[in-house]
Amino acid sequence: MYRATVGTGKTLLGTLPFTAQMIYDGYLQKYKCEKNSKLTEVENFMRCENFLHGVVEIPEIAKSERIYRHEAGHLLIILLHFESLSVFPALVSFQKRADLKLNAYIKVVDLPETGKKTSTSDEEKFKSWILYSVAGKAAEAVFNGTEGTTVYSLLKRLQEKTNSRDLQIARMYASKLSDDETKQEEIIAASFYQAIKEIKANERKYEVILEAIKKNSFITASEIFKLFEEL
Which InterPro entries match (predicted)? Predict the structure, then answer.
């Protein structure tokens, strides 16, 4: 059974109703990649990502503190809300690839079928996705001490429609909650402040995640499970 303690408690992940192998298999199925039994999990993930997005441009590219903190914010929110998101992370990559113009990215897969009943409403799911989408910027704001001002630049980008991929996702799910663009922006702003609150309430867990991703530029399902079990 999944167990969570929000705040200063130690346990966040208990025994999950699915395994790292199920997440690994879900990734291979989602991206239509064949598993080579002679390769390790990491090698199979790498092989699939090379096929999907091209080879790594600069294997040992230096990443900024902002990028690490941004992705750690996303990961923490997935960890806290994976049931309502209905997904689990399969891969975290800080490798820049030829056909994917991102400095870092997270790939998720749908939660495996376990027979466990869930009671997540559509509204809760949409709100969780908005929360996840703005968590990276929220983590940056906490680090920079700009919690009170970052939201204005975020809203400006929404209004000018110069949106990042994260904000495009946030807008898409906000539009499922309201047809009014002003109301959508209010929902996204509220989620931004909620993300800040959750990052601060789970500071120790956030720092554990942050340190782990700084040490490894390519983290796959089994390693993600090990990381979460440390929290």
Answer: Peptidase_M41-like (IPR037219)
Sheet hosting strand 87-93, strand order edge to edge = 105-110, 87-93, 218-220
Note whether residue 162 is domain-resident.
Answer: yes
Q: What is the pTM of this model?
A: 0.89
Pairing, β 105-110 against β 87-93 = antiparallel
Residue 89 domain boundaries: 20-229
The answer as to whether 4 is a domain residue is no
pLDDT tens, residue by residue, 7-39: 433 445 556 889 999 999 999 999 999 999 999
Cβ proximity of 71 and 92 under 8 Å: yes
Q: What pLDDT does 62 receive?
A: 58
SS3 content of the chain, % helix, strand, coil (to 5): 60, 10, 35
- ∠ Cα 1 15 113 (to 5°): 65
